[in-house]
Amino acid sequence: MILQSLVHLYEELSQQGKVAKEGWGTAKVSHRLVLDNSGKLTGIVSARKKVLRGKKEKEIPSEMIVPLPSIRASGVKANFLCDNSSYFLGVDDKGKPERTKECFEAAKALHHQILDGCCSEEAGAILSYFDHWNVDKAREYPLIQRNLEDILDGANFLIQVGDRDAVEIPEIREAWNAYFKAGGKEGNEERGQCLITGKKNEPIAALHPKIKGVLGAQSSGANLVSFNAPAFCSYGHDGEQGKNAPVSEEAANAYGTALNFLLADRTHAKVMGNTTVVYWSEHAEEAYQNCFLGMTGDDDGGLTDRELDDILTHMKKGQSADINGVTMNPDEPFYILGLAPNAARISVRFFLWNTFGNVLKHMAAHEERMKIIHPSWEKDRIPLWRVLKATANPHSRDSASSPLLAGSLMKAVFMDGRYPEAVFQNILRRIFSDRDEEAVGGKPAVYKISYVKAAMVKAYLLKNCGMKWEGKIQMAVNENCNDISYVLGRLFSVLENIQKSANPDINSTIKDRYFNSACATPASVFPVLWKLANAHLGKLDRPRAVYFKKKLGMLMDKITMPDKGTPLPHRLTLDEQGAFVLGYYQETQARYAGKKEEK
Question: Which pLDDT does position 187 carry in this prediction?
Fold first, then answer.
């Protein structure tokens, strides 16, 4: 399903002219080999482009559309019109002259095979160059000596005849297209039925294309499909590589090109935790990607909040939405793919498919559950990467969350499933472990109970424990909620406020010493806190003392007195501890909001 979806995406992108067509690909080209009409090498010209990297300008190779490059392992396999110095000049620094000469001869044979019947002056010049170039004396050529450092750099060279790149000459392009469609690329002697397209008698790809742009994977590219050990091979097919699961060269190139296109689009390819996420609509309309990006809360995707709300309103009703001249259909198939590195390969964390309207509905439902009162400087939409970051130790060298946790959370959000228990447990663990710390030396501030942590706790309780907490937990303080765990959280916030009011310059409050134990075992801690509160109330002036006593009395009235024993529970379950955290957070935020209104 993944490869089929990517092949279909390639077909859409190809029709829109966004990727190279069948038989063509992209390569990084650093120089051009300039030939005259007789085939003589007259120049080596830089094809690099200047880009800004930070404050400095740097030259990097240019991405160019060239005849589809071969996938090399360790053998000799030449490319047409664009290749490195070993194949085009017979010069390299590998110290194996015989192999270098073999590479040049392979390039010469390939160009003759394709261009021998081509009626073009430029094609004749290219063949003449390969026929007359002396590999044994190549290093002695003055032009080579002047550019030796660039030549040995290992980058690709593109053949240019006169003032035109060979890839732009119609006759040469036609010769290549005919060769490629005939399945003439070296290594395509094995044929069979493609498992992706269903076509029969197709050249089977022994090696699949490299995928670049996945965070943590090899910069030169890693394989999504590979068979590098007998354990991964079907019975009786050891060492046959791609023949284990036959995929045609055409389909392999298509899915590789489409996936590399998505990963190269840094506007839409996002990293969440340790997972690189790409997403696309079936008809490759960028508007769907922009809308999805805006809904994640990480970026507006070029859309205003009003436009996003308008799209969401239409999608909830099952209606199409028109944005910037593009009609967005709620029934448009939408795909989300999560990738993570695994040595020299890429592992699939998740692959989700749904209609675009349903994906937006699920994300909107998650967003609604996450809504909670927050400081004015915080945004309403919380990106998933912030939730994942809140589950990790802020002081750890690797502050990223578990890749498996990231995948599970994203599945839950995009498919409207139950949130992973591990997310909630890790959030509580961080609340119990973290302490409030101010930002120092460029390090961000750390909050024991942050906006993001509280929002995720609320979302978890409403989704996973909805039967118990639906109607009790709201965006702000619920004055009508009498659940003991929620009331005790609010009560703890009031007791902390009393202590701060009595001792304005205090550095450590009861939150630092007693919050964790009060949240887990309230019956053993709150008697101590009430005793402290009585001492703190004695230090306050009469109006403030009366205010706090009324507040305490109002909350105490919500606690049901049993016929015998203590009214406080000896232990709180995990979801009750979450409610305690919410009660504390919402009561504290209400206090800050009240101060802001007074000012």
Answer: 47
**How far is residue 329's CA from residue 13's CA, in Å, rounded to a whole number?**
19
**Contact at 8 Å (CB) between 88 and 69?**
no
Which residues, including other chains, have CB under 8 Å from residue 517's CB and lie 6 or more apart? Answer: 524, 525
Continuous segment of H or E residues that includes residue 272: strand 270-272
Buried b (16+ CB within 10 A) or exposed e, 548-566: beebbeebeebeeeeeeee
Q: pTM higher than 0.85, yes or no?
A: no
* Confidence class for position 298, pLDDT limits 50, 70, 90: low
Q: Of the candidates 220, 239, 242, which has an alpha carbon nearest to the alpha carbon of residue 230? A: 239
Q: What are 44's strand-pairing partners?
A: 33
The pLDDT value recorded for residue 581 is 96
Q: What is the enclosing helix (H) or strand (E) of 338?
A: strand 333-342
Average pLDDT along the chain: 87
Angle, in degrees to the nearest 10, between helices 574-598 and 510-520? 140
For residue 7, give the nearest of 216, 201, 196 by alpha carbon.
196
DSSP string, 472-522: T--SS--TT---HHHHHHHHHHHHHHHHHHH-TT-SS-HHHHHHHHHHH-H
* Residues 83, 157 contacting (CB under 8 angstroms): yes
How many CB atoms are located within 10 Å of the residue 262 CB?
Answer: 25
Q: Do 4 and 11 meet the contact criterion of CB atoms below 8 Å apart?
A: no
pLDDT for the residue numbered 218: 84
Coil, strand or helix at 529:
helix
Contacts of 112 (CB under 8 A, 6+ apart): 127, 130
Q: What average pLDDT does the segment 199-225 reach? A: 85
Q: What's the pLDDT at 497?
A: 94
537's tokens: 């109330």
Give 238's pLDDT tier (boundaries 50, 70, 90).
low
Query: Concatenated DSSP letters for 371-439?
Result: -----TTS-SS--HHHHHHHTS-TTSSS-PPPHHHHHHHHHHHHHT-PPPHHHHHHHHHHHHH---B--
Q: What is the C-alpha to C-alpha distance for residues 328 and 378, in angstroms, rounded to an integer? A: 30
pLDDT tens-digit readout, 26-72: 888 999 999 999 999 999 998 888 887 777 888 888 888 899 888 77
